[in-house]
């Protein structure tokens, strides 16, 4: 029934389009509608590629509808064949969603990590080779755009253009802020944020690396302050230098300020705000200067501010 609906929609769409522009452009229209239902490529990209390949005359091109005029009909036909959203974590993944546009493997792991808990890992062979060849990797998760029945979208990035040890620490912040030389290599859809799930993810990557004659042994790892992730990294990559992201670090401190009920004081009292910001800035100091600077920050604070920030200082000291 669904197939008949798609055929009917495409037939109506094609007839109306031919009526508008004539039969000279029939080939390009047929290619557009066929690719729209057979591929997941963006309609605008399909339109551009077919226009380039068609070599139509300027006069004929002038009669063609714009992509925004064709797009609604093509998208409607595509939606008729798009799988419905699953009602549980047990669902089949069509082949077209497991492969890249060049028909290479993209879904390289589909694993159950617990009862009704599924972990999907996506990445092409080229991306995975880049990840395994890199000594510096970045990890981060997002929770706001997660599919139903999953907890987070977790990505792993690799630094493609390596630098010397001396230059690395000087340039990495510049690269991150302006040049974005890290490349996404793995896209994971995870069921939770537990240490055991992260460890399973790392073991899958290590096994896959061995299967293609590589090793997954990064020497530097940058991530947020997720407790389960920190434990998993310590267990699986004990020899690696693990650093927290400065943005997430400052966010963690500010969240603690909010939890302790100091938000109003932070915005209204300049000395309190200054002490909190200096606390955040300690991470930018050389390692051998942090402890003494933290002690100095507490000593030089007024008695009232020291009392107000006592719990915040304890939190920082225990981390």
Helices and strands, with pairings:
Elements: H1 2-21, H2 26-38, H3 43-54, H4 58-63, H5 67-81, E1 107-114, E2 117-122, H6 125-133, E3 136-142, E4 152-159, H7 165-179, E5 182-190, H8 195-211, E6 220-223, H9 227-236, E7 241-244, H10 246-259, H11 263-268, H12 270-281, H13 287-300, H14 303-308, H15 310-318
Parallel strand pairs: 3-6, 6-7
Antiparallel strand pairs: 1-2, 2-5, 3-4, 4-5
Description:
The chain has 319 residues and is α/β, with parallel strands linked by helices. It has three domains: 2-81, no CATH class; 95-244, no CATH class; 248-318, no CATH class. Helix content is 56%, strand content 14%. The protein contains 15 helices and seven strands. The chain is elongated, with a radius of gyration of 27 Å. The N and C termini lie far apart (60 Å). The model is unreliable at 12-23, 163-171 and 173-178 (pLDDT under 50). Keywords: Membrane, Transmembrane, Transmembrane helix. Residues 182-250 form the MULE transposase domain. Pfam families: MULE (PF10551). This is MULE transposase domain-containing protein.
